[in-house]
Write a structure and sequence with these properties.
254 residues; alpha/beta; D-Maltodextrin-Binding Protein, domain 2; 5-stranded mixed beta sheet; 35% helix; Solute-binding_3/MltF_N; SBP_3_CS; plasmid; signal; ABC transporter substrate-binding protein
Length: 254
């Protein structure tokens, strides 16, 4: 598909002749439009689950890290062109992405869901959603999934992870697909989401290959030293219980 071809072209351009600083001072990009995983708070600070996790990993691995916000559609090209050393933004690990990027060990296994106005959608099958407008963030596993399985629907794509909710609540989209946790904690638990609900089955990579193996931190394939350091840090964060603490902080039931 179009996204896969773009990533292969970027790989050819970005992986040849790359030079890397020793793992120790790195720049990590994240798409800060996807709360509670990554967003910018009222004071302008970058916050969220992935942000906290990245800082914890860098501390554990003795890496000097600078986590910055970057546009979603420029993150993978930026990694390929050595603008960024790593990406952390709930990046699902798929075969297509593995061909052009290296990934850390998996640190999460997300669930994907649809959300719609209460009572408006009871069946999320392709036949039932024929003619409906499905909102997704462009270039994501959700985009790939609905594009493949819902040919009879109109797919509306958005650059940011929060923008689709505006069209959903305004009636310009009938249904939206995203990470279940993102829908719950950034929308359904807020006033804007009180009239909306999760619909359809809970989906994972076991249900469709488009959803991948899980979530990892992306790096340039040639930067093997950084991949090793990140994995060492992640292993320590997991062993020390910090990963469990982050899951409890952001996703524990109220």
């Amino acid at each position: 598909m179009k996204i896969a071809k773009m990533m292969l072209a970027l790989a050819a351009a970005g992986l040849a002749g790359s030079l890397y600083a020793a793992p120790g001072k790195i720049t990590i990009a994240t798409d800060a439009t996807f709360p509670p995983f990554e967003s910018i708070d009222a004071s302008g600070k970058l916050v969220g689950y992935d942000v906290d996790l990245m800082h914890a990993i860098c501390k554990a691995a003795a890496l000097d890290c600078n986590v910055i916000s970057a546009p979603w559609d420029g993150m993978i090209p930026g990694l390929m062109n050595n603008k960024y050393d790593a990406l952390i933004s709930q990046l699902t690990v798929t075969d297509a992405r593995r061909r052009v990027m290296a990934f850390s060990d998996i640190y999460d296994h997300p669930v994907f869901r649809f959300v719609a106005k209460k009572g408006a959608v009871t069946d999320t099958s392709p036949e039932a959603l024929k003619g409906k407008v499905i909102a997704v963030q462009t270039g994501t596993p959700m985009d790939t999934y609905v594009t493949k399985h819902y040919p009879g629907s109109t797919i509306k794509r958005y650059d940011g992870g929060s923008a689709p909710y505006l069209d959903l609540t305004a009636g310009r989209a009938d249904i939206f697909m995203s990470y279940e946790a993102q829908i719950i904690y950034s929308f359904l638990k807020k006033d804007d989401g009180k009239d909306y609900q999760l619909v359809g089955p809970r989906l994972t990579g076991k249900d469709a290959p488009e959803f991948g193996e899980g979530v990892g931190i992306a790096m340039n394939k040639k930067n093997t030293a950084l991949v090793e350091k990140i994995n060492q840090g992640l292993a320590k964060v997991r062993a020390d219980g910090d990963l469990d603490a982050l899951n409890k902080k952001y996703f524990s039931a109220e």
